[in-house]
Give the backbone structure.
Amino acid sequence: GGFKNVLVVGADAVSRFVDWTDRGSCILFGDAAGAVLVQACDIGEDGLFGFDLHSDGDGKRHLISTFKENEADDASSENPSTTSFPPKCSSYSYLQMNGREIFKFAVRVVPQSIEAALEKAGLAGSNNFDWLLLHQANQRIIDGVATRLEVPSERVISNVANYGNTSAASIPLALDEAVRGGKVQPGHVIAAAGFGAGLTWASAIFRWG
C-alpha cells in the first residue's frame, strides 16, 4: 500500500528486430506505445479481483531474439536504426518465431490461466466478465482462446487487424481504443491475458473505472 498512483507503460519498436526480407514474419508486427494509470482503491472497493502468472523456459526456442555484438562500423553515438531503413544492425539478432508452436502454446495455456484467475476472483465462468482482452498476437490466437472460453466475438476486444502485433503495447492500445469507442464502460469487468517470449503468460481480472 505504499503507492497510490502507478503509471504502467508498454512500448516496443519491433521493426528494429524483424527481418525485412522475410515477408512471412515482418508484416505481422507494428511499433506502438501505450500506458495505463493504476490507482489505489479504498478498502472494500478493490478493482483487481484475481491474477495468475507463469513461465516455462523450455519453450524459449520458439520465440527468441539472441544478443549479438554491434559491428565496428555501426558503433557510434547515433542509433543506426534512425538513419537507415531497414536497420543495418542492432544489439539483437532478427526475431525468430515458430508460429505453429506459439499458436498451440497460447490456445492451450491462456484459457487455463484466465480460468484460474477467475477462480481466484470468485468469478468462475465466462458469463462473469464483460470483456475478453488479450495480447494482440494474431487473430487466430484471439479467436482460439475465445472459443475455448466460450466467449462470443462481440465480447472480444481486437484491433490486431489495424496495427499488427505491437508486443508490450498491444493490451493498453486495445484497451484505450475500446474505452474511447464506448465499448468499455466504468464498472465493466475485464478478463485480460498476455503471453510471449520466455515462454511467459499471465492473466488478470479487474474492474474498469
Summary: The domain at 5-69+84-207 is CATH 3.40.47.10 (Peroxisomal Thiolase; Chain A, domain 1). Helices lie at 99-121, 139-149, 160-163, 170-180.
